């Protein structure tokens, strides 16, 4: 699954300057450095704890590690040949803005690859997923890439090993595009609307928060239950 997603990034030369955004403890980075010199790889994450765990991995010792936000990357324009992000977009409050940042930090002709989830197909799982986290549609990913200025946008579907063996379909995508120009893009509408860190705790917000937390807690057990039920097949008729 990791190798298939990374293939979309075309890591075809060891000398590619590469940034892994939302690198966490470095699972995707470990795949990345099979193709690119570790000293050319920058791991960026918003969590110091995750980066500390990455720092403890000898294979990743040569990679630069930086604290930062995917939506406001601490790099100049045209800094990299490749931008990679695996399993992080679902946590970003404004993914469109982050993908514009991906374009800004890439040199013209550079490639971005973002791997993220697709919405689950079952109705109940979909409801839980939407209450918990961001599960963009395939069309959302493509729209964000094209709006940021990427060309040749391609979508590779990725199936989780457990879903594939159970006959399940696409579970995630690896979306890739080629940067077309240099410099910062024009601001999108979302960059003009400031985030409200001081939003008051109204009853509506509290209910939303509680429903989201409950959905997050139920998501994995509900998914396992539905997968087991699907494996058992249709119940016996009376
Ligand atoms: C599920 S982990 C994936 C880690 C890694 N890419 C991997 O393949 O194992 C998601 C990571 O995204 C990071 N993250 C979430 N939002 C972020 C943001 N806005 N900017 C940077 N990192 C972010 C989290 O701290 C976390 O380490």
- Continuous helix count: 9
Structural class computed from helices and strand pairing: alpha/beta
CATH class: Alpha Beta
Helix content: 25-40%
CATH architecture: 3-Layer(aba) Sandwich
Q: How much beta, percentage-wise?
A: 15-25%
Number of distinct beta strands: 7
Mean pLDDT: 84
Low-confidence stretches: none
CATH topology: Rossmann fold
Distinct small molecules bound, one entry per kind = S-adenosylmethionine
Question: What composes the largest sheet?
Answer: 7 strands, mixed
Spatial extent as radius of gyration:
19 Å
CATH homologous superfamily assignment: Vaccinia Virus protein VP39
Shape descriptor:
globular
Give the total of domains.
Answer: 1
Measured between the Cα atoms of the first and last residue, the distance is 42 Å
Main β-sheet, spatial strand arrangement: 3-2-1-4-5-7-6
H-E order: HEHEHEEHEHHEHEHH
Summarize the structure.
With 238 residues, the chain is α/β, with parallel strands linked by helices. The chain has nine helices and seven strands.
């Amino acid at each position: 699954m990791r190798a298939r997603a990374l293939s979309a990034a075309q890591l075809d030369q060891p000398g590619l300057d590469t940034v892994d955004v939302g690198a966490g403890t470095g699972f995707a980075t470990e795949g990345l450095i099979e193709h690119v010199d570790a000293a050319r790889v920058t791991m960026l994450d918003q969590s110091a704890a995750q980066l500390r765990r990455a720092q403890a991995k000898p294979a990743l010792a040569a990679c630069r590690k930086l604290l930062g936000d995917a939506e406001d990357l601490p790099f100049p324009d045209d800094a990299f040949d490749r931008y990679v992000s695996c399993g992080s977009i679902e946590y970003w409050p404004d993914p469109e803005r982050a993908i514009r940042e991906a374009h800004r930090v890439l040199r013209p002709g550079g490639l971005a690859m973002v791997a993220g989830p697709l919405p689950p197909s079952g109705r109940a799982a979909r409801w839980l997923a939407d209450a918990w986290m961001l599960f963009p549609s395939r069309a959302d990913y493509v729209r964000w890439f094209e709006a940021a200025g990427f060309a040749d946008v391609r979508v590779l579907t990725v199936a989780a090993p457990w879903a594939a063996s159970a006959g399940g379909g696409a579970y995630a995508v690896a979306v890739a595009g080629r940067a077309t120009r240099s410099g910062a893009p024009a601001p999108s509408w979302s960059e003009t609307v400031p985030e409200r860190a001081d939003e008051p705790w109204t009853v509506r917000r509290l209910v939303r928060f509680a429903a989201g937390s409950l959905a997050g807690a139920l998501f994995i057990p509900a998914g396992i239950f539905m997968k087991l039920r699907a494996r058992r097949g249709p119940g016996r008729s009376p």
